[in-house]
Amino acid sequence: MTTFNLLPSCPKAMSPRLPRDLAGIALLPSDDISGNLERKLDLFPVVIISLSAMIGSGLFVLPALAMLEMGGGNVPVGGVWLAYLLAAIVVLPAAISKSELATAMPSSGGSYVYVQETFGPLIGTISGLGLWANFMLKSAFALIGFKAYLWVIEDVIGFDINIESAALVLLLVIVVINILGLKRIKKVQTPIVMTSATFLLAICVWALFTMEMNWDAAFSRDSFGTGLESVASTAAFVFVSYAGVTKIAAVGGEIRDPGKTIPKGILLSLLFSTILYVFVTLVMAITVEPEMYMEAANHHAREDPVYIFATEVGGTDIGFIAAVLSVITMTSMSLAGIMAASRFPYAMSVDKLLPGVIGEVHSKFNTPHWAIIGTGLSMAVAITFLPVHDVAELASGFKIMIFIVINGCVIVLRRAASSHWYKPEWESPMYPFFQVFGILGGMALLLLMGSKALIGGSAAIVLGTIIYMSYGKNHVRSEITPWKTNVLLSSDPAEVERRRRMASFHLADTDGSGAIDLDEFIAAAEMLGFSEKDHAKLQEHFRSADTDENGLMDIEEYAVIVDKMVSMD
Questions:
Q1: I want to staple 305 with a disulfide (CB 3.0 to 4.6 A). Which of 64, 174, 339, 402 is the partner?
Q2: From CA 410, how far away is CA 115, in angstroms rounded?
Q3: CA-to-CA distance for 73 and 298, rounded, in angstroms?
Q4: What is the pTM of this model?
């Protein structure tokens, strides 16, 4: 659990000794959760990390699966561009909420930290496990999906490749690069992401000038399946494509100037990825018949749609280049995915919800190596045993659930802010409209996804509860969370205010003596929102309360004078 420090104005900014029943009520969080990770990421690499997590399976594998999904599993249709757009609209509130949360808690662990600090260790453990599973599955999804492109390469070069072994070897390389550190990841990812985006856009422009365009394939009524329900269910299916847009927050502890860089990085990544997804899938549908993206033998969706598209537009040589680039790009996606996924167990270990060894940082490379290795091993299992469609659906379901909770975090923290530490550098516009819309929109998509998403979510709840009850509960202290404060605000707001005042007193009483002097009283009053500029008036209040003139004020005297100050304010 994140610890808390006094306000900067307090002259004795030491760690306070709070009574147990007040633990969790404070005004500013410390940055301890960031651990020993180095802050060295600026805006450009932050956007690259996010895009590299998205410009992968979301474009190289999912479009054909989405076409078949929108057609009800029988007939592929080309209106999937609208599903990608709708998914982005539902993602937007969570992106905005996460931007705000990340500036208040710029720490490695991202969404897990936000949920943990808002709702407490039990829900934090469940969310951390769910988030880790989501990012791990999405990264595995990329390496599962790229197998289809390896088959293309195998056919062209006439050399037999053990596809399963190749995927596992690449996974091993990815794990090693992650252990070596962020600088190396940046150097690898930047040219890959730029090349991929440029290639896809170039093929699309080429297609628009050289191919016959069938606009009905993407805009007719039939192109959207049964209508709104088909579009919405397909949007839920492709939701995982945008999981990387908030991946930036998972490495918040490694970002320079997080108050500015994180919101810009998240929103720019969402904008760029939405434009790319919508444009590419639209051109794929109007220039190549959706039936071409199906396997003729069994009418299953092909897992190499970009190869089919590039071959139809530019011939076999261009198709081969597309296949090679697809393999490289999805490897890059997995590279970023493992990095983000590993930060969740790292943060949970720092918070003592998981064994301490998981949170160890490599002495030379400054990376959480055991968390990275564990994530890599889990991906190996997923790559070996899970089909690509199921992985995509489970990953989307996990992400939608988490985004619902993230939007809820902002509402809870805003409401409890006067009693707790929540002070974001950047605030969500149109609060709480975006948050409520995100919650309702996410719930609607979950209902349309069906049982698999609910089963996956239930599994995370059960396993997370077991982990917390067997380990975490014995290693963390109970604290008053913003959620508990919200509940109490509805039933006993006077008790909330009493606790807030008691907390300010004990925070100011840094030596734990049970009495505060004038400087400590001023610090306590400022915590409660009294003007830091009007010290003369605060001095007067202190003298009036110090009836024995010993220069100290106990908690009973403090309670009386605060009541008087509130009535006069």
A1: 64
A2: 10
A3: 12
A4: 0.81
